[in-house]
């Protein structure tokens, strides 16, 4: 390591110790822009025999437990490199030189598994339902889903997966090593959007090295330093793929593509189903050309969303729409009956002398009408044919005339009316 790097690190170590409490917030905000210091710290971590490694690890731990969000993220950006250094030293069985790194990893782990009150934390993850649209899919593009009672009962339900509580660890062993490292990588992935480009590059590089060391592909990659195989767990490889997937769309296409191929290579050798499925899914979803995205500004995964048609949402068949459709038809039927009664013109009921209100059956003759009563009815009907009357009464007048004609034609010699 050059003397310039050593000077920057020593100045950084002494600066924080003399910093007043009121200036910590502004100091943490400006710390992420010191690229020369960050590069020097990476060089210190990569040299296990460096005298500055122990004070650097101690100060990074102080940053993490300070409670300042910016200082916490500053420590997290070195987490992939710290994990690689610990695994490389463990593979060479030189555990004494990794004591400070192990202490830092254990300290971060023990701080993350408890809340501010010191109680064990239980993390929850909600698995999205395919029946609801998201930024990754549209339900209509999957195909028709059978509308069954079981499908309706599951619609809207969310599946929640819990992680924890995690036990505290006093030291890293072969049994709990990847349990701790997997949880630490999960914490790192939770803050991926705040990680600088140099941290994403480090993540992709250490993923490749962990997966190919000790295998024939190491000669192809030309990795030197560690020739022993580093055991990995399936859960740890899944967390590696999560970070790699983010790096694809945030300016690290080449390194991420190489890292994903190496993780897929190792997953095939180990026959791990979860990393195989995730790596193949990522590979199948990648565009043909390299993604060119700016390393500044908003970082996101670019996806294509099919436009949602209003016809689909309007004609969606649900239990509520079926019930509403049934009531709608019932209301339309009632309104139709009312309209029929208002629009059709009913034959007026004629009240004459000596005629009861009982309806006659088909083919029966009505009771006899007095001739003077019939003339009286005719006179009333003729008075309603005045052209000055409202036009709304015209159909009724025509109907009354037709009734009168029927009555005149139906009067026989005996003075009875026939219908």
Detail the topology: elements first, then pairings.
Layout: H1 3-17, H2 24-31, H3 35-45, H4 53-64, H5 69-76, H6 79-91, H7 99-112, E1 123-127, H8 139-142, H9 149-154, E2 159-163, H10 177-190, H11 197-212, H12 217-221, H13 234-248, H14 253-270, H15 273-285, H16 310-314, H17 319-343, H18 371-383, H19 394-410
Antiparallel strand pairs: 1-2
Helix pairs in contact: 1-3, 2-5, 4-5, 4-7, 6-11, 7-10, 10-13, 11-13, 11-14, 13-14, 13-15, 14-15
Question: Could you characterize what this model shows?
Answer:
This protein has 419 residues and is mainly α. It has a two-stranded antiparallel ribbon. α4 crosses α5, α4 runs parallel beside α7 and α10 runs parallel beside α13. The longest helix is centred in the last third of the chain and has 25 residues. It is globular, with a radius of gyration of 43 Å.
Question: What brief labels describe this structure?
Answer:
mainly alpha, 55% helix, 419 residues, 19 helices, two-stranded antiparallel ribbon, globular
């Amino acid at each position: 390591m050059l003397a310039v790097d050593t000077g920057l690190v020593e100045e950084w170590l002494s600066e924080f110790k003399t910093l007043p409490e009121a200036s910590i917030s502004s100091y943490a905000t400006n710390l992420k822009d010191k690229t020369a210091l960050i590069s020097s710290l990476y060089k210190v971590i990569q040299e296990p025999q460096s005298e500055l490694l122990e004070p650097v690890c101690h100060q990074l731990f102080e940053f993490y437990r300070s409670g300042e969000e910016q200082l916490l993220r500053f420590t997290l950006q070195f987490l992939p490199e710290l994990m690689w250094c610990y695994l490389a030293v463990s593979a060479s069985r030189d555990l004494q030189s990794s004591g400070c790194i192990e202490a830092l990893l254990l300290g971060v782990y023990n701080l993350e598994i408890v809340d501010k009150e010191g109680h064990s934390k239980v993390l929850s993850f909600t698995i999205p339902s395919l029946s609801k649209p998201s930024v990754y899919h549209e339900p209509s593009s999957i195909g028709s889903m059978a509308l069954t009672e079981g499908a309706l009962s599951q619609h809207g339900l969310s599946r929640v997966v819990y992680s924890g509580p995690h036990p505290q660890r006093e030291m890293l062993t072969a049994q709990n090593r990847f349990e701790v490292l997997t949880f630490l990588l999960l914490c790192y992935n939770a803050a991926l959007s705040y990680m600088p480009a140099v941290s994403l590059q480090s993540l992709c590089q250490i993923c490749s090295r962990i997966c190919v060391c000790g295998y024939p592909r190491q000669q192809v990659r030309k990795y030197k330093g560690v020739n022993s195989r580093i055991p990995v767990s399936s859960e740890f490889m899944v967390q590696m793929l999560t970070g790699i997937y983010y790096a694809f769309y945030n300016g690290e296409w080449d390194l991420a593509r190489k890292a994903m191929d190496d993780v897929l290579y190792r997953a095939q050798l180990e026959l791990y189903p979860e990393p195989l499925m995730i790596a193949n899914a990522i590979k199948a979803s990648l565009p043909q050309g390299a993604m060119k995205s700016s390393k500044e500004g908003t970082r996101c995964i670019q996806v294509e969303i099919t436009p949602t048609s209003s016809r689909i949402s309007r004609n969606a068949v649900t239990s509520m729409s079926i019930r509403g459709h049934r009531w709608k038809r019932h209301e339309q039927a009632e309104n139709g009956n009312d309209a029929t009664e208002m629009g059709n013109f009913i034959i007026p009921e004629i009240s004459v002398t000596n005629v009861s209100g009982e309806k006659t059956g088909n083919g029966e003759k009505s009771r006899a009408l007095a001739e003077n009563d019939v003339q009286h009815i005719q006179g009333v009907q003729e008075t309603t044919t005045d052209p000055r009357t409202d036009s709304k009464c015209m159909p009724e007048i025509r109907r009354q005339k037709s009734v009168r004609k029927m009555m005149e034609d139906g009067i026989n010699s005996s003075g009875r009316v026939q219908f």
